[in-house]
Amino acid sequence: MKALIVYGTRYGTAAEIAEEIGCVMKNDGAEVDLVDSKGLKDFDVSLYDLVVVGSGIKIGKWTKGSLKFLKDNKSALSERNVALFVTCGAANEEDKKDEARKNYLKKVAQENLINEPVAMGLFGSVYDPEIKQGLMYKVTMKFIKKELEKQGIDTSKRHDYRDWDEIRAWAHDL
User: Which residues are in the Flavodoxin-like domain (predicted)?
Assistant: First the structure.
């Protein structure tokens, strides 16, 4: 099997997940190409049996590059097996996972794919107080920081909420 993994990342979290998915698939015998969606144009997906497209979520949105890839290749992807994944803060909390699946996976699939994806992965994110961004990000992070502090979590340190065993199992199932 030949697989393409296209990812969009802002802070590296989705890139690390995409790399791990690629490693697992290679170990399972697949030929894998890993591509950052940033600036990606006119990509021929017809060479692949499986196309995995993933993104980090920031303030409720996929990366522009990953969404553009899905839209630009909508017709060609209808002839391929497609899997989607996202990494987001909502996946860190059990009571928010269903809403995140609906908004970040099912909705994106309905709007940008002709066929149902063969798999949809919802993975946790990373809290990193060192990341400095615009006003909306700062406001959002202030809220997240308060919630983490209520849970007794030291918000001065980076916390990785990704479940690597879950990610590897998802990749293996592909």
Answer: 3-174
Q: What is the CATH number of the domain that holds 73?
A: 3.40.50.360
**Number of domains the chain is built from:** 1
**Nearest Cα to 70, choosing from 4, 138, 149?**
4
Report pTM. 0.86
47 occurs within a structural domain: yes
Q: How far is Cα 102 from Cα 24, in angstroms, rounded to an integer?
A: 26
Helix-helix angle 164-173:13-27, to 10 degrees: 50
Joined tokens for residue 132? 């400095």
Q: How far apart are alpha carbons 122 and 166 in whole angstroms?
A: 10
Does residue 105 lie within any of the structural domains?
yes
Block mean pLDDT (10 aa), the chain, length 174: 96 95 98 94 93 93 96 96 94 91 97 96 81 60 66 69 95 96
**158 within 8 A of 128, measured Cβ to Cβ:** yes
